[in-house]
Amino acid sequence: MPPDPSPPIPQPVLDLDHLRTTFGALDADTVAMMDFFLETTAPSVAQARAALSSGDAETARAAAHSAAGAARTAGAGALAAHCAALETALVAQHPAEAERHAEALEPAFQAVKDAIADLKRAVEAAP
What sign has the CA pseudo-torsion 7, 8, 14, 20? Predict the structure, then answer.
């Protein structure tokens, strides 16, 4: 079955309501956990892209799966959606679709980094 050509439902870059619910507040501890998310998820995002480029679909799939779960937990919906779509395309053996989502990983990850930096500045500026 070919992949669904319809555009994905837009997801937030960083869902602050999800973070409030998950961590109880938007504070320095939340920022620290989000920094940890970035540190631990960056290698999976990079590995997914590198493995796909080298033709290792299984490693790319596993890395995308790992990054998708971490992104969902962190409230990074758009990144999670691209990671999950990459995994789905790899399982379905649709290389063009997989490549399209793989190319979106780095910009989506950068957008999350930027949103976390904004959150950090807001937390630091709060009284």
Answer: positive
Q: How far is CA 115 from CA 14, 46, 89, 91, in A?
A: 6, 19, 27, 31
Q: Which amino acid is at 56?
A: D
Looking at residue 45, what DSSP letter applies?
H
pLDDT per position as a tens digit, 46-80: 999 999 999 999 999 999 999 999 999 999 999 99
Query: What's the token pair of residue 116?
Result: 């976390």
Confidence (pTM) = 0.89
Phi first, then psi, for residue 60 (nearest 5°) are -60, -45
